[in-house]
Structures are given as structure tokens and as C-alpha cells.
Amino acid sequence: MSTQLPLQISSFETYQSTYERSVRDPEAFWAEQAATFSWHEKWNRVLDWNFTDPDVKWFQGGKLNITENCLDRHLDTRGDQTAILYEPNDPEAPVVRLSYRQLHAEVCKVGNALRELGVGKGDRICFYMPMVPELAISVLACARIGAIHSVVFAGFSAQALADRVNDSDCKMIICSDYNNRGNKTIPVKEVVDEALALGCPSVETVLVHRNTGEPITWDASYDQWYHECVDEQSTECPAEVMDAEDVLFILYTSGSTGKPKGVVHTCGGYMVYTAFSFLNVFQYNPGDVYWCTADIGWITGHSYILYGPLLCGATTMMFEGVPTYPDAARFWQVCAKHRVNQFYTAPTAIRALMARGNEYVEGHDLSDLKVIGSVGEPINEEAWEWYHEKVGKGKVPIVDTWWQTETGGIMISGLGGHSPQKATFAGYPLPGIQMALVSKNTGEELTENPESGLLCVKFPWPSMLRTTWGDHERCRNTYFSTVPGMYFTGDGARRDANGMYRIVGRVDDVINVSGHRMGTAEVENAIDEHPLVVETAVVGYPHEIKGQGIYAYVILAPGNHDPEKLRNEIVETVRTEIGPIAKPDKIQFVEELPKTRSGKIMRRILRKVAAGETDNLGDTSTLLNPEAVDAVIEGKV
Ligand code: WT7
Fold first, then answer.
1. ipTM confidence score
2. Reported pTM
3. Is 12-65+249-503's fold the same as 514-635's?
């Protein structure tokens, strides 16, 4: 088996020449990277593509299993090295270290258990679990036997879970009994039971991992204990041989319309790109301890806690807890405790910790840090500077990594220490990534610098989404129709005179709350479920910690209402429909919403009002009901 790794770039000059080569001959470049992995059969075509259907295939005919590349191929060279380093929520609880050999054995045991429970290639398994080693183990086990994982963040509600389970007809749900989060214990299995009660006809088995051991309700017709199914299994499990373009996983993400869509990633290209980008952005070297604080319920956790690091034979940390438990020093205490070399977190966490005061970060030994990263939303200058000064001591390079669930891997970022860095700028595209700015007005590509426009990608990259589960037309419509011939990201961006990219933010009806994507339509639909709500418009507004907060304008049915009581009920409704992450921060009751003559809500104006920018509302001449604007301004909360 191959023990090679993809190319690791170690200077800006090499980046530049590599970039040039990767764009001149993308197929040769990616074939060279792909050749460093273990394949059962080599591909016969590197790339076939069009962005019209769209139809993108990398490494066709190639046969592989990604878990053999994450695990088996490392056994001879680093079998005893820690693969997963697990830091529990409770700082006093024992750390768990799983070597590559142990992780391989555990994954095999679960793989065998899943097969015994009737799961096979192509079946979908939904995961609804906290950040415990068994989540990583069973996700990899799923990939080992060729089943498709769909991880749902354990903060989503029963309704949101049921929607996702049903969209992809999952045969099994793997969950925990309870989840430890700060000083709270969250009843995870109970939410799964609620989801099943809402109706999940495809689910045959719920596999329950015992985490806290507190009592749960049990239905013997579908519940099975994880340990009872797994403990006696063999530690060898033949990997299912997958085609490069077979589906590896589905991950649901919010869009500007309708229900969340299941972004589909496939085996070969995703493997090549997550490993390549991990190695280069974080400049990981053997022996380093790498820590990404994301949850595996998001793409960041998939690509840069699990697959990217394990493909590169890294030691990757999994953290069960939250940044502020037992206090706001936890991140830094853990960095010092495990001598973390690469640390990757979100601006919202940085801002929250910054607000608690410098005393929490000072006094912890952060001298092992070599690269610190940011992801999920634009990082404001103040947070960047604080991260740079207080965490990076003014000398550790920051990588501001721009990417999306759909891109599978990091697209624009510095390569830890080898790229020019500029606060609030993500920087240059990675090798093989052909970004473009497109004029909003003319639809033409903007080739000069500096320039700003719609952020697009002109050419396929190995880890791009292939489709949206069960609805290819939606994929085409969402990403490939705005700018014909290109992948449209939904973001607006600016390029400076040197060609460095700065991401401005979403240009569609998507808001980014604490680095989590929420569709305004989704939140509106949830609020509309309240029986007294007639109509709702939701917009984002600048929020000091979360980046964007959720501002809801709500029209109520006629009658005498207690506004405080209704606000609480509406928040509760959203919590039930989606989960606490979608709770509105502000709710304003209005008589009417400003609308165009064609009946469309003027969100532009609502955004301005929510942001407090009422002296500059722009053109309001197309409004059907200009008086609604004054009333909205008057009632601002
Ligand atoms: C959206 C994607 C994959 C990362 C986790 C979020 C925003 C992401 C940055 C960044 C500015 C960023 C964009 C993007 N975003 N990273 N470094 N600077 N904005 O993944 O939930 O798919 O959201 O997050 O708006 O479109 P996601």
C-alpha cells in the first residue's frame, strides 16, 4: 500500500509555480496527487465535465476505499501513533488516545456490526451524535462498508432530524444516549424517539451508543445497543471496493429557498482534495498535534477533523465540549495541555472569547502553535488582530480559509506561513482552484485588479459537490444557472491590487449565524408554524459575537396579544422546527411588510432597518406601500 502523501508546498515561489502548472494542465496535476494514494484499480480518465447539466466526474474507473487510505496504509509506518486524541467535555475526565492500529480495529468491528445489521453498499445511515470517538469510528465504519453517511448536527430538532432522515431514506440512525455539553446533559436519544414519532418510515434500526449511561426509553422493535452489536466483532473487516464516483456522504445545508439540500460528495476526488488541502494549508508535519474545534456535524469536521488529517496520517484532536466550559480559558488550556501545533476555529468563537477578556488567554503556554486558522464567516479586523496578537503572539501565521459545504475542501487560503497575509483577506486560491469574479450587472467575468463581484469557480476541482440528493435540477439551478458555465458560490468578494481575495459575504438570502448557514426562508417557514402568525420576513443584521443575528419581522393575526408571551412562543416554535441555532435574536411585530408592486417583500429595506442604517434606504420608488417603511422604522427593536 502507498505511504506517500500529496505534494507539500513550502514556499510562496513554489506555490506560484505550482499554481501555474495546476491551471495549465489540471488533469496532470491532479493525477499526480491522486497517484500518491492506494487504489485497487487505477482510473482510466482523470476528468470529464460540463457545468451545464452539471456533470463532473473525477478519476472514473478508479477503485478505492477511502478508509484504507485513512487507516490501513498507515499501519506499517505509524500503527502506534495516535490517530485520534479525544479531549472530553469534563477537563478532569480521562483523555482517550486511539492509535492508528486501534482506530483501524474499532472501525473494522463497527463495519462488521453494520453489515450484520443488514447495512450494505449505498444504504444511508444518519448520525445524530455528540463529539465522541464512537462518532468518528462509526462514520468511518460506514464508509468502510460502502454505506453513505449523513451526519446531522446534534443541535438540530427532532423535526429537522426527521426531515433529513426522510429526504435520503436512511435505513439506520446511530445516536448516543445523552450528550455532555458544558454543564448540561442533553437527551439525544429522546430527540431521535421524537423524530421517529413524527414518522421516519425508512428507519429499521436505531443503534445507541452509551455515553453517559443515564436511563433512556427503549423500543426493542428497533433499538440496539452499539456495544452489544460491536464488542464481539472481528477486528478485520474487508473494505468495500468503491468506484471513485460512488457517493461517500450526504451533508445537509441551508439554501436561500425551501428545505435544506443534501450536498453529495463522492469518494475519489474528495479523498484527493481533502488530503492535499489539509497538508498544504496547515503545513502539517509528522508528529504534529492538530486541533480543529468544529463539530463533525458540519463539513469542517468531515474534511478537517476526520478525512483530511487521517488521510495524511496526522494526530487529530476531537473535543467534546464548548469553548467556555469550565471557563473561557478552555481552548488555551487544551492547546497547552496537548501541545497543539495547528489550531483551527471560527471567528464567532474568537469574538466570544475576546469579549471575556485577555486574562483567559494569557498565562497559557501556546508556544507550540505553528499555524492558526479561521473558518466559517468573514473575520473582522478586530478579531483577526486579537487572534494574531493574543493567540499567535504576533508571529504565528493565520490562515483565513474560505470554502463551503459544497466545495468539500478549502478553496482560498494562505498556506501556513508561506503566503503573504493581510487581515480580513482569505488570500489566494489553492493550486487547481480557478476562481473568478463576475459582474452582477453584466454577467461578465472581471479580469482586472482591484475588482469586486460575484465569487465563482470556472473549472472543476476534485472535491466539488456532484449533485443534491434526489434533486439534480435543484443543484443546477442553485449553483450553475446564475452565471452560465461557472459554479456560483452565493458569496460576493473583492480582489485587491495584488489579486488577494476578501470575502464580503452572502449575496443571496442566506445568513451566517456564528459560522452556521441559515436560509431566511427556512426560518420564516418555522415562524409561520405558530398559529397566530400571518406573515414573516427574516433578515440578518450585524451581531457583535455571532457575526450575523436573526431579525424577524412578524405580522400577527388580529386581536389583543401579549407581545412578550408571543415572542417566547415564536422562539419556542423555531426551536422545535429547526433547533436553537435558528432562534431569532430580535422579533418585531409589524402591521405590514414593505412590498414591491409585484408583491415581493423588499428585504433590502428590512436589512437596512435591522442594521440601523435608516438614513440611507436607497430607492423606494417601486414600493407598493411606502408608509409601511416608516412604521417599520418606528417599531425597530
Ligand atoms: C459559507 C459556507 C466550510 C466552512 C464552514 C461553513 C462563509 C466560510 C469563510 C471565510 C468569509 C466564509 C461563506 C460561505 N464562509 N468561510 N473564511 N471568510 N466567509 O460552511 O456552512 O457551507 O457555509 O460560509 O459565506 O459561502 P458552510
1. 0.99
2. 0.97
3. no
